[in-house]
Amino acid sequence: MLPASISFGEVVHAWDTFKAAGYVVDFVSPDGGDVPILDEYVSEDVASRIEDEEVMRGLRNTAKPEQIDPARYRAVYYVGGSNAIYGVPEHSVLQSIAMHVYERNGGVISAVCHGTAGLVNLKLASGQNLVAGKRISGFPEEHERQDAAYFKEFPFLIRKTVEDRGGVFHALDSEDPYIEIDGRVVTGQNYASAKPVAEAVVDVLRRLTGQQSGRGAVKG
């Protein structure tokens, strides 16, 4: 088994955007506690933030899904990194949290890069897949290093699975930011899309509520 990690920059860029908008950000992971952060997933633009006590306290002490009261949240943000494709998509409690926020709270579901893996198994109360009929972005398998050991360990492919679930997948052949906004579902293609995704989540929430403060959740 190969080591996996969250994408630290995708946390930081979203964190800064949500905090600047007046939102409280909480962290949750499949097992709670310390989430893995490998050096290769800490880009130069955010390396200094490893010393940010507030961010690191959240990442070193993530809540267990069972500790989360979904009634308190208006948004879910699935962080990318290779860690996102393991343990998150099939976690029934994380799924329940997300769908409570989306259906009962009228909130937003969002994801960036490999974080889109967290959306593929989400189902509405009707039994329909959340992504069905929706424009979705994320990190497509054609952009992966397909001869690399990590790729051979992936349990599923993001584009293929989104499309199998009825979603309409969009991605650019580029490292430029790219996001899709389809109602209350916001997704981004790559690392560069983390801040635009977070900004779009804030915009959607403001349109929905007319308020500039609330609570949001980050999922690692």
What are its keywords?
Prot/Nucl_acid_deglycase; six-stranded mixed β-sheet; globular; two-stranded parallel sheet; 220 residues; alpha/beta; 8 strands; Rossmann fold
Number of domains: 1
CATH superfamily: Class I glutamine amidotransferase (GATase) domain
| Secondary structure category | alpha/beta
Sheet having the most strands: 6 strands, mixed
Q: Assembly type of the shown chains? A: single chain
Q: Give the H and E element order.
A: HEHEHEEHHEEEHE
Mean pLDDT: 93
Number of strands: 8
Could you characterize what this model shows?
It holds the Pfam family DJ-1_PfpI. InterPro entries: Class_I_gatase-like, DJ-1/PfpI, Prot/Nucl_acid_deglycase. This is DJ-1/PfpI domain-containing protein. Belongs to the peptidase C56 family. HSP31-like subfamily. This protein is α/β, with parallel strands linked by helices. It has one domain (8-219): Rossmann fold, CATH 3.40.50.880. Helix content is 28%, strand content 15%. It has helices spanning 8-20, 53-60, 92-104, 149-153, 158-164, 194-209, and strands spanning 23-28, 75-78, 108-112, 135-136, 168-169, 179-182, 185-188, 214-219. The protein has a six-stranded mixed β-sheet. Strands 4-5 form a two-stranded parallel sheet. Helix 1 (8-20) runs parallel beside helix 6 (194-209). The longest helix has 16 residues, at 194-209. The chain is globular and about 40 Å long. The model is unreliable at 211-215 (pLDDT under 50).
